[in-house]
Design goal:
The protein is of the alpha+beta class. It has four domains: 8-50, no CATH class; 67-108 and 234-386, 3-hydroxy-3-methylglutaryl-coenzyme A Reductase, Chain A, domain 2; 114-226, Hydroxymethylglutaryl-CoA reductase, class I/II, NAD/NADP-binding domain (Alpha-Beta Plaits); 392-436, no CATH class. It is 48% helix and 18% strand. It contains 16 helices and ten strands. It has helices at 13-23, 31-37, 43-50, 88-100, 126-143, 145-153, 188-208, 214-217, 253-269, 271-291, 296-306, 347-355, 361-384, 388-403, 408-417, 425-436, and strands at 64-72, 75-82, 106-109, 113-121, 157-165, 173-181, 220-226, 234-242, 317-322, 325-333. The strands form three sheets. It has a four-stranded antiparallel β-sheet. The longest helix is centred in the last third of the chain and has 24 residues, at 361-384. It is globular, with a radius of gyration of 26 Å. The site of (R)-mevalonate has 10 residues, from helix 10 and helix 13.
């Protein structure tokens, strides 16, 4: 039995590692060394990482790679991606090359508004609350003026505050449903600060409101928080080309297009497939979101909620053929920032944004959506032609060789061998054994 520890956060990094090694890693002699091995030798860079969060022991690396040749709205991008899955960057690059020869990707931002809510309980007369809200709304906006001044200079701010009656869902439950424009910042801190100020002001004004009786004055604030569901912060990404340009793997263009559209129909109707289909999209999206220092959990939550907006989980992307033209597109919600948060703090995020030519949040929305669509195209293309394992296992070969502790010389021989042979764990093991004997 392990005893609880008090004051863990006040221990130094070394002391935390000591405690951890003794308490949970006693059998692992290497653990301490490995945790230290991942410290950055540049102490100020290490300190920067430690200060991102509490109780940091070490750094956790992900590969930071590049998918070049993405033609988006006639501009060529090289897209930085932070991801561990072997085949993702290769697949994105392949899809970029494929669509680069067919006019490239088109992307358009359809909306940029974000939502935050003050959830509160009021048990008095409904019409009195409505009257109070109408009188108080200008005071709410006044109360956040010091917070919104800078955002307004950049063209953002509070767009609207609505009173919403949710008493059918829960007795006494109302909301201040607030809409924000946050320009190039993701805006989470800005939105949450405004909401908390709205809540305080609303509650204080209610106490002083003469038309309320004693119980009506007593508005209870349950919580004030942004929503990661952003169905009005939407970007559309699309590719299209004449069907005959889709000829592939001995398939005619018509054949390829009809198999592709059918695969998408399956993802549309069958939730088991839709989840995996959308996971392929998220392979691209998360990798760019992470590389640029954005919040991938927020993006994931918002996108999957959007995939269920009709009441059933479905595919995020769509494809059709009309008048000999193949079209493949997706509209997704994406709340991203290119200023503030980690974007300007993490040295690699800064470089990622520089690689992308210092995009605005809207530009980044387009780039991220396109990467998701490209990834989805590459996955479905493999699935309906060669199957996914061929490409995947080729890219996974190096992981297997590392697992089997192959030397650099052995790797060279086996990489050459598997250029023309199917990769599987057992096949690699067998070949390595042969080589060693
Ligand atoms: C694997 O990471 C992603 C895929 O499963 C996506 C898909 O099935 O469409 C290949």
């Amino acid at each position: 039995m392990v005893d609880p520890i008090t004051g863990f956060s006040r221990l130094s990094k070394e002391e935390k590692i000591e405690w951890l090694s003794k308490t949970y890693l006693a059998g692992n002699k290497e653990a301490k060394k490995i945790l230290r091995q991942y410290w950055n030798p540049d102490s100020s860079l290490q300190k920067l990482h430690e200060e991102f969060t509490e109780n940091t022991l070490s750094n956790y690396y992900l590969p930071f790679g590049l998918a070049p040749n993405f033609l988006i709205n006639d501009r060529l991008y090289a897209i930085p991606m932070a991801i561990e899955e072997s085949s993702v960057i290769a697949a994105a690059s392949k899809a970029a090359k494929f669509w680069g020869k067919r006019g490239g990707f088109k992307a358009e931002v359809l909306g940029t508004q974000k939502i935050g809510q003050v959830h509160f309980i009021y048990t008095g007369k409904d019409h009195k609350l409505q009257e109070f809200f109408n009188i108080t709304k200008p005071k709410l906006l006044e109360a956040v003026a010091p917070l919104t001044r800078n955002m307004e200079k950049r063209g953002g701010g509070v767009v609207n505050i609505e009173l919403r009656d949710k008493t059918e869902l829960l007795s006494g439950y109302y909301q201040l449903h607030c809409t924000f424009e946050t320009r190039d910042s993701m805006g989470a801190n800005f939105i949450n600060s405004c909401l908390e100020r709205f809540a305080e002001t609303f509650q204080a004004e209610a106490k002083a409101y003469k038309a309320f009786d004693a119980s009506e004055k007593d508005i209870e604030i349950v919580m004030s928080i942004l929503s990661n569901y952003v169905p009005d912060c939407i970007v559309r990404a699309e590719v299209s080309c004449p069907v005959d340009q889709l000829e592939d793997h001995g398939m005619t263009g018509e054949d390829f297009a009809s198999k592709f559209v059918r695969a998408l129909k399956i993802a549309k109707t069958e939730p088991y497939r839709a989840v995996t289909h959308n996971k392929g999209i998220m392979n691209g999206i998360d990798a760019v979101v992470l590389a640029t220092g954005n919040d991938f959990r927020a993006v994931e939550a918002g996108i999957h909620a959007y995939a269920s907006k009709e009441g059933k989980y479905t595919s995020l992307s769509h494809a059709d053929v009309r008048n000999g033209m193949f079209r493949f597109w997706m509209e997704i919600p994406l709340a991203l920032g290119t200023v503030g948060g980690l974007t300007g703090l993490h040295p690699l995020s800064k470089i990622a944004l520089e690689i992308l030519q210092k995009p605005s949040a809207e530009d980044l929305m387009k780039i991220v959506a396109v990467t998701g669509l490209a990834q989805n195209f590459a996955a479905v293309k493999s699935l309906i032609t060669t199957g996914i394992q061929q490409g995947h296992m080729k890219m996974h070969l190096m992981n297997i060789l590392n697992q089997l502790e192959a030397t650099p010389a052995e790797k060279e021989v086996l990489v050459k061998h598997f250029k023309t042979h199917n990769v599987s764990h057992s096949a690699v093991e067998e070949q390595l054994e042969k080589l060693r004997n």
